[in-house]
């Protein structure tokens, strides 16, 4: 039996509906993916960025293998303070990121006498600073600096592991425009030297199958 013209017109939309629905669903997924990518880029650029500790210059405060979150917008609202641990572009090679502690602020007079730092002539209390055992004579020989006035817009940076840190004692003041943000928490930490792989996927699988290499006690640690 042949269908009438009216019957054909009624069935045509029914055939087109599944295709239109599939197109709509795919479009929604594509739009959601684009929005997620753009949001991630905005967050990484302006809000929070992840950073991995590659060296021991900030021991014992930060361990090699710590993964940090860095607040990138905080200093748009609050001033940089002494003691802040910040991530910045290394002045001698801006393709590399460094992390150190703020010791001297703009306009202050800083002097280093061996293991003692003076700010405006007053000894600075540094419970976070550590020195190598038996390195006193070498430290006294190396660490004599100033007094010097820190220029406007500049900061004097130092690592907590004083005998194993390349910092402002070596490369000078840090320009505020090279600062990326303040480290505020350890979101993940592992003994990276125990991972026998360099590529990402084998490393992830190794960590999943060897959870003992994760420093569970450091997860969520506040950086200060």
Detailed description of the structure:
It is a single chain. This protein is 29% helix and 29% strand. The protein contains 4 helices and 12 strands, in the order H-E-E-E-E-E-E-E-H-E-E-H-E-E-H-E. The longest helix has 43 residues, at 5-47. The protein is globular.
Summed up, what is this model?
The chain is an alpha+beta fold and 224 residues long. The chain has four helices and twelve strands.
List the defining traits of the structure above.
alpha+beta, 12 strands, four-stranded antiparallel beta sheet, 4 helices, eight-stranded antiparallel beta sheet, Umud Fragment, subunit A, single chain, 224 residues
CATH topology of one domain: Umud Fragment, subunit A
Q: Over the alpha carbons, how many angstroms does the gyration radius reach?
A: 27 Å
| Alpha carbon gap, first and last residue | 83 Å
% residues in beta strands: 25-35%
- Which percent range fits the helix content? 25-40%
User: Which shape, going by the Cα principal axes?
Assistant: globular
- Tell me the series of helices and strands, N- to C-terminal: HEEEEEEEHEEHEEHE
Structural topology:
Blueprint (H helix, E strand, L loop, with lengths): L4 H43 E5 L13 E6 L13 E6 L2 E12 L4 E5 L2 E4 L2 E2 L12 H7 L1 E6 L4 E5 L9 H4 L2 E2 L3 E11 L10 H10 L11 E2 L2
Antiparallel strand pairs: 1-2, 2-11, 3-4, 3-11, 4-9, 5-6, 5-8, 6-7, 9-10, 11-12
């Amino acid at each position: 039996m042949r269908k009438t013209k009216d019957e054909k017109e009624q069935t045509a939309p029914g055939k087109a509906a599944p295709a239109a629905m599939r197109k709509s669903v795919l479009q929604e997924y594509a739009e959601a993916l684009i929005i997620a990518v753009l949001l991630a880029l905005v967050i990484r650029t302006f809000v929070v960025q992840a950073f991995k500790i590659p060296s021991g210059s900030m021991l014992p405060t930060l361990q090699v293998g710590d993964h940090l979150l860095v607040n990138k917008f905080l200093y748009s609202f609050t001033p940089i303070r002494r003691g802040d641990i910040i991530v910045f572009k290394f002045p001698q090679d801006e393709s590399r990121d460094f992390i150190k502690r703020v010791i001297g602020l703009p306009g202050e007079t800083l002097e280093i006498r061996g293991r003692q730092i003076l700010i405006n002539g007053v000894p600075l209390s540094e419970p976070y600073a550590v020195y190598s055992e038996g390195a006193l004579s070498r430290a006294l020989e190396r660490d004599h600096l100033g007094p010097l006035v820190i220029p406007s817009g500049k900061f004097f940076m130092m690592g907590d592991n004083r005998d194993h840190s390349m910092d402002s004692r070596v490369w000078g003041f840090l320009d505020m425009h090279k600062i990326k943000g303040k480290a505020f928490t350890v979101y993940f930490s592992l003994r990276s030297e125990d991972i026998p792989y360099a590529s990402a996927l084998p490393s992830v699988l190794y960590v999943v199958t060897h959870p003992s290499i994760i420093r569970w006690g450091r997860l969520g640690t506040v950086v200060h």
